Each structure stands twice: as structure tokens, then as C-alpha cells.
């Protein structure tokens, strides 16, 4: 009791002063400490770590199942966090966007654990980890995208393309596109995993205009262009074979902004050039 009491006192003192705790939260004893303190205290500790930008410690809390209550969902469309692990992911996703150079080294080391969050299927954590991946895949660190493909990322995420939440579908699609962009091998892996079918289904769910539609069109273009920004005829052929002409015919270009219209015409031009070349051949 004396040992734990001393730790709790140290914890409170460190929280108030925002100094890094002198005990290691990754030890077995510290796991007991997590279980014995209240969820409010642990949330306060998370906040302290966020303010101190101690991302490594926050990473260790992703698997923590202690319940939390009345935590604001961020973004607003996400499920309210139900556990400390979900709050940790929320903090990390925002930090990855704001401090990528600080957070990515720690996140790159725990990619398998982050992917495992998707496999576990707890929706509040799945949404947060996908938002985290959407920022993580912007990184110039190519090994991250390569490793995610090796961890069967496409297989796990593609079913979520049909999620009822419009915003979550967008996060899933754009994250996959960031992984396969400018890499023929990863593009082909996405295609082999039936990615085009799922991508076309997302497009068919609409709306067929606006910023989201523009991003989806870009996802198709990114699947077509290789590392040298040249059209890959084989990939164009796959797109044409899966494309829903009813959806294409439903597009009302009069409802688009100039920027969206230009991107749509860019895609149509790529597809028409391929068809023209096939006729010539």
C-alpha cells in the first residue's frame, strides 16, 4: 500500500507541475497503477502527456481498456471515446497532423498494434485509428506505406468503404489512395484485393459533385498514374471494366465547380485515350 500510495502522490505532483513522471508506466507495477487509479485521473495524465508532447507514453496507453465518460468526440462525427485507449488514439491522431516529425518515429514502431485496432473492431477506436492512418500516410517515410500493405491493410479497410458514415468512408478511401499513389506494386495489390469494386461503390453512393466527389476522382487517377505520372494502361483497363456507366451518366457537370469539373474531365480523358489506343491496336 505504501508503494502504491507513494506513486499516486508522485503522479498527482507530476500532473500539477507537468513534469515527466519518474516511474515507468510500461512495467508490471505501473499496469497495476493504471488499474487502481480512477478514469478521471488517468485522463488527466493523458492530457499532461499531450501537453508535454510525450507521445511515446501515450502510445503505450492505446490498449488500455479502462472506461471513460463524457469525453468529447473529435471530430464531431466520430463515436464518443469509451476507453482510455480510444482517447489516446484521439490525441495521437491530432498530434500526428500537427507534429508529424515528433510522432511518426513512435507510430512507425507500433504499426502492427495500430492495425490490430482495426481487427478488434471496436468502432470508437477504429474511427480514431483510421483518422490517425490518414495523417500517418502523408509522411514521406515510404516504409510506412509498404509495411501497411504487408500487414493486409487493404483487406481490413476495404469493407469499411461502405460504412454508413459519409465522413468515415472518405477517410478510409483517401487513406488507401495515399498508400497506393505513385507505386505500381501497391496499386496492383489494391486492385487484386477488389479495391476498384469497392471504390466504385463509394462513388455510386454519392454525392456526384463537390469536394468529396473530386477527391474520389483523384483516387481513381492515382490508381491509374504510375511512379512517373504516366498512365498505366493495364490499370486503366481494370478501371474501365469495373466502372458503372449508369453512375457516369448520372453526373451533372452543371452542378460542379470549375475545379471539380476539370478533374472529372481529366479522368474521362484518360479513359477515352485508352479506348482510342485499343481501337488503333
TrEMBL record:
InterPro entries per UniProt: ARM-like, ARM-type_fold
Top-level taxonomic group: Eukaryota
Protein's UniProt name: TOG domain-containing protein
Species this protein is from: Stentor coeruleus
Amino acid at each position: 500500500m505504501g508503494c502504491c500510495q507513494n506513486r499516486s502522490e508522485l503522479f498527482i505532483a507530476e500532473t500539477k507541475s507537468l513534469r515527466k513522471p519518474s516511474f515507468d508506466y510500461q512495467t508490471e507495477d505501473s499496469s497495476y497503477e493504471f488499474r487502481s487509479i480512477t478514469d478521471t485521473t488517468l485522463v488527466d495524465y493523458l492530457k499532461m502527456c499531450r501537453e508535454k508532447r510525450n507521445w511515446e507514453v501515450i502510445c503505450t496507453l492505446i490498449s488500455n481498456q479502462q472506461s471513460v465518460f463524457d469525453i468529447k468526440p473529435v471530430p464531431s462525427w466520430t463515436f464518443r471515446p469509451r476507453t482510455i485507449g480510444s482517447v489516446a488514439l484521439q490525441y495521437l491522431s491530432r498530434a500526428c497532423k500537427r507534429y508529424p516529425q515528433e510522432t511518426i518515429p513512435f507510430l512507425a514502431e507500433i504499426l502492427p498494434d495500430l492495425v490490430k485496432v482495426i481487427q478488434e473492431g471496436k468502432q470508437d477506436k477504429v474511427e480514431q485509428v483510421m483518422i490517425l492512418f490518414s495523417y500517418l500516410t502523408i509522411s514521406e517515410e515510404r516504409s510506412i506505406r509498404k509495411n501497411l500493405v504487408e500487414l493486409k491493410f487493404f483487406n481490413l479497410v476495404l469493407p469499411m468503404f461502405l460504412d454508413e458514415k459519409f465522413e468515415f468512408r472518405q477517410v478510409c478511401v483517401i487513406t488507401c489512395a495515399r498508400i497506393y499513389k505513385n507505386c505500381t506494386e501497391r496499386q496492383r495489390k489494391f486492385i487484386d484485393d477488389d479495391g476498384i469494386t469497392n471504390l466504385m461503390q463509394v462513388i455510386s453512393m454519392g454525392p456526384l459533385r463537390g469536394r468529396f466527389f473530386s477527391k474520389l476522382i483523384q483516387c481513381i487517377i492515382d490508381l491509374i498514374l504510375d511512379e512517373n505520372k504516366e498512365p498505366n494502361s493495364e490499370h486503366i483497363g481494370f478501371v474501365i471494366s469495373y466502372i458503372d456507366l449508369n453512375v457516369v451518366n448520372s453526373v451533372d457537370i452543371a452542378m460542379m465547380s470549375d475545379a471539380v469539373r476539370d478533374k472529372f474531365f481529366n479522368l474521362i480523358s484518360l479513359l477515352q485515350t485508352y479506348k482510342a489506343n485499343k481501337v488503333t491496336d
